[in-house]
């Protein structure tokens, strides 16, 4: 009977831990000593996309600018202003296109230990954009899956100095 109760208690603990909700299972008093010896304390897992403690988003914030490739024009002049409060503004100008100027905004976050940036636009009809953090001075556009774009074209934006 005690083995059945122990098995049931373990099964219930396993089912509850699978929900990722912090819960406390109180076993029957007779079973407390047995389960304390055999059941390890649950450990909290870190958020998978949390930036590493050394990445300072406020210090990384700033303006990045450059010309990105365009399928049907000479290039897309792009300026992204990453603000310290986690918001961003983007301006894009499609070279040689009438009415080819676009502006947008949203929020930005650091992912993968500060190695990647995600731009989440306020306009939900636009897709998120991902950038590789090459250095403090350069970010490079990634594809929708977060992979490097297989192309010889330049997909980098460089930090704009405050004097410009």
Question: Would you kindly provide a written description of the structure presented here, covering whatever features stand out?
Answer:
A hairpin with a 4-residue loop joins strand 4 (101-111) and strand 5. The chain contains three helices and eight strands; from the N terminus they run H-H-H-E-E-E-E-E-E-E-E. With 164 residues, it is an alpha+beta fold. The termini are far apart. It has two domains: 2-38; 57-159, Lipocalin, CATH 2.40.128. It has helices at 2-17, 29-38, 57-60, and strands at residues 62-68, 76-82, 87-94, 101-111, 116-121, 129-135, 138-141, 156-159. An eight-stranded antiparallel beta barrel has the order 1-2-3-4-5-6-7-8.
Write the layout of secondary structure elements.
Blueprint: H1 2-17, H2 29-38, H3 57-60, E1 62-68, E2 76-82, E3 87-94, E4 101-111, E5 116-121, E6 129-135, E7 138-141, E8 156-159
């Amino acid at each position: 009977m005690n083995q059945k109760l122990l098995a049931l208690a373990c099964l219930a603990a396993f089912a509850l831990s699978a929900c990722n909700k912090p819960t406390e299972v109180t076993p029957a008093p007779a079973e407390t000593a047995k389960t304390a010896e055999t059941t390890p304390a649950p450990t909290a897992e870190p958020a998978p996309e949390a930036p590493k403690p050394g990445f300072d988003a406020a210090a990384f914030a700033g303006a990045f600018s450059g010309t990105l490739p365009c399928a049907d024009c000479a290039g897309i002049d792009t300026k992204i202003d990453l603000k310290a409060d986690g918001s961003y503004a983007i301006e894009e100008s499609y070279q040689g296109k009438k009415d080819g100027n676009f502006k947008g905004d949203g929020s930005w976050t650091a992912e993968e230990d500060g190695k990647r940036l995600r731009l989440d636009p306020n306009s939900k009809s636009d897709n998120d954009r991902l950038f590789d953090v090459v250095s403090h001075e350069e970010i490079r556009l990634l594809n929708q899956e977060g992979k490097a774009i297989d192309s010889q074209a330049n997909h980098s934006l460089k930090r704009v100095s405050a004097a410009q």
